Backbone:
């Protein structure tokens, strides 16, 4: 590595989950606080951060090809930082295989980017994949700008060790950020323009903390406190684990109006044998009973989930149990994935890995079932009146796009501004969006 001047412009490319989107925003704020400016659209950046995701197959291959593309430039090569979960899991290999990479930084260490950049300018390749508990957030700059819908990471890491999943290894053990810090960050986000905050965590409902008086709080307590923040109109949270659902969280859906009627509660499979092999420690039946309790508290709650098809040993009959669970549970939306062996996880070495063609076929059937449910959910909301939080312009002039309380994309024709809450009647439903007819704009 050669010595080089400090970069003055940056670009951050975030892949994968919403927590990476949040981390990408915070890295951007950190770089801006050091005097760097974001590279203009279409222009080369002097520093490129690849904020990577390791959850599915060929994640690392994708990173290497992105690196190759970045280095194939007529101008000077950018300083390249690989961040995120691939950096955490495969940092050493990346340094060995990709000499053009100057920095490898894990998801718990990115607050140290300015030091790592300084080292890289001295020609020293820098790696930091330490996992200090919670040091990162205190070291990041204050938040000053926000879109109407903002993310707030409240919890990181996972202690569940599902047998297919890398997260416990890449993001580390479960930690909860302190209550007072979260309240302060939420307040700043609202002052900076947020009207909706989505609380993020790999197991967000495992969050726990204590208020000023030392009373222990769960996620529902945090939600109740946030609901008192003036100017914050909507609260969401994701992703939840069935085993960490509490009575309090279910009750919050009944009596906190700012808590949106939406629940992302992955089950992964409808077969108890597969769930056991996945180390999920809940049954399909227990999951369905939980849903009944959420629906008793909030009958219109929109349900979302995650599914894996083709887990090692999954039989046709077990897969059909997943299809049946999808029908019974009634999803408004769901993510579905083909199982992919992640090196170092127990499932990667299990017998009876399912053939790729069979996975493709099962994924198609599952996605068709989910799509039918999604359209049915959207159609069932036609005729309802609801507020839409305007997020951006639509494709056609005069058109705007935003989200309903049930997280559906709603478009409408009317005067509006990003950040408005607009009352609409839901008039027509497609599989992925609905048309709204505007009634009035609620005061900001
Ligand atoms: N293969 C396929 N899907 C996976 N997920 C996590 N690990 C794997 C894997 N090895 C899915 C799960 C999880 C979502 C974020 O990604 O469904 O809930
Ligand atoms: Fe991965 Fe399971 Fe933890 Fe979710 S609960 S992050 S799937 S180990």
Residues:
């Amino acid at each position: 590595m050669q010595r080089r001047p400090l970069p003055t412009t940056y670009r951050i490319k975030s892949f994968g989950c919403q927590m990476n989107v949040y981390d990408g925003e915070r890295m951007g704020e950190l770089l801006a606080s050091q005097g760097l400016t974001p590279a203009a659209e279409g222009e080369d950046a002097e520093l490129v951060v690849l904020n990577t995701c390791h959850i599915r197959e060929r994640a690392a291959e994708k990173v290497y090809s992105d690196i190759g593309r970045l280095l194939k430039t007529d101008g000077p090569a950018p300083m390249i930082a690989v961040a995120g979960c691939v950096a955490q899991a495969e940092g050493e290999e990346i340094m060995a295989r990709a000499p053009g990479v100057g920095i490898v930084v894990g998801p718990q260490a990115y607050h140290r980017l300015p030091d790592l950049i300084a080292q890289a300018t001295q020609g020293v390749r820098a790696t930091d994949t330490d996992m200090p508990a919670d040091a990162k957030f205190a070291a990041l700059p204050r938040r000053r700008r926000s879109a109407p819908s903002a993310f707030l990471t409240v919890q990181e890491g996972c202690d569940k060790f599902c047998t297919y999943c890398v997260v416990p290894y890449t993001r580390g053990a479960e930690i909860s950020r302190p209550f007072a810090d979260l309240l302060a960050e939420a307040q700043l986000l609202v002052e900076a323009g947020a009207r909706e905050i989505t609380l993020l965590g790999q197991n967000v409902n495992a969050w726990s903390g204590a208020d000023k008086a030392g009373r222990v709080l769960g996620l529902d307590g945090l939600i109740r406190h946030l609901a008192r923040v003036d100017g914050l109109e909507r609260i969401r949270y994701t992703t939840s684990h069935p085993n960490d659902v509490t009575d309090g969280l279910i009750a919050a859906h009944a009596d906190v109006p700012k808590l949106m009627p939406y629940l992302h509660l992955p089950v992964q499979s409808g077969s108890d044998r597969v769930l056991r092999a996945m180390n999920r420690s809940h049954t399909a039946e227990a999951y369905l009973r939980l849903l009944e309790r959420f629906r008793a508290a909030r009958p219109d709650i929109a349900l979302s989930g995650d599914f894996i098809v083709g887990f090692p040993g999954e039989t046709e009959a077990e897969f059909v149990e997943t299809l049946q669970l999808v029908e019974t549970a009634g999803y408004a939306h769901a993510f579905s994935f083909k199982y992919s062996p992640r090196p170092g996880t127990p499932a990667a070495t299990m017998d009876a890995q399912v053939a790729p063609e069979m996975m493709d076929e099962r994924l198609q059937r599952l996605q068709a079932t989910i799509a039918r449910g999604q359209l049915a959910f959207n159609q069932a909301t036609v005729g309802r009146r609801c507020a839409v939080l305007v997020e951006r312009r639509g494709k056609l002039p005069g058109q705007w796009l935003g989200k309903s309380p049930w997280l559906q994309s709603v478009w409408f024709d009317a005067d509006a501004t990003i950040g408005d809450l607009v009352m609409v009647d839901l008039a027509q439903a497609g599989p992925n969006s609905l048309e709204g007819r505007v009634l009035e704009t609620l005061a900001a």
